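Re: weekly structure request thread

Next one in the queue (351 aa):
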Amino acid sequence: MRALTIAPGRKRSLELVETEEPTPAAGELLVDGLALGVCGTDKDLIAGEYGWAPPGSDRLVLGHESLGRVRTAPEGSGFAPGDLVVGVVRRPDPVPCGACAHGEFDSCRNGGYVERGIKQLDGYGSEVWTVEAGYAVKIDPALSEVGVLLEPMSVLAKAWEQIDRIGGRAWFEPRSVLVTGAGPIGLLAALVGAQRGLDVHVYDHNEDGPKPKLAADLGVAYHHESMEAAVAKAEPDIVIEATGAPSLVFDAIGATSSFGITCLTGVSSSGRKVGVDAGEVNRDLVLENDVVFGTVNANLDHYAQAARYLAAADRDWLRRIITRRVPLRRFKEAFQGQRGDVKVVIDLQDA
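Done, posted below.
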């Protein structure tokens, strides 16, 4: 079989290699890979910025946004051949911290977790893969074309859960949400906001291409003029920052109304400096009882909620988020940005 691999920490080491099909261990599913989503994390790994190979290996199979079809399943696992599944990314520390021990491995305290396609576990970027039944999520067959969006949606399911928990510290009936960035995470965040009946606003610098149309068809407001103009129109109670652009991060923190919540989902590159009035930021946060928090990854409950969010969404709209599907044999094209890209997916079964 073919697999996408990198040598972690080494630039330009991405290769499509021939390797043996895996043999499922006890309790594991054997899965034919269908699709692999490409995100910024993958590009950072390819750039050699981080990544860890499995013990005893110098290469890592890439890929954490998965979709596959079960070939074989253990008896009593709850899965059967033909089921569509997505593999969970993170696994808890073998000697777990308190959070991992309670199933909240997305909030690991000691950093001893491992992750498929990122940290010490091979990913889902191969024609065939295995996954423990307890870390596989069965999805509705109707989601066969868009199920690869489940992993990014799980991150948003966690974000909205945390927003609810934080808002619950006192009376909280949010009216408006502003999402910065109309990439996959931003658009999925807007989708959930719309499903919740909020007044949703999306800010992105793109004036044309698919993003404004995707926002319009979702029934949300789209702004490209400036962050200031978007904030003035939205008057947001909640901001979900999905770009990681340092200047936008601080703009987002200062954008909410009193008792506002800012959720940071974008990861910023280090070394970029912006001028910030730290005193003003602190003053606003304290006097307005605001909260800023970051979120990444997801646990099993978040994956289950993500599946419900996708099931409730318009299938055609979800399909249009995936703006390019690249056959595995042309894998390099998937990691080269093109004008109009929103979500790029690699077709693992296209020879």
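The longest strand covers residues 28-38. Residues 121 and 303 are 19 Å apart (CA to CA).
Next request, please.
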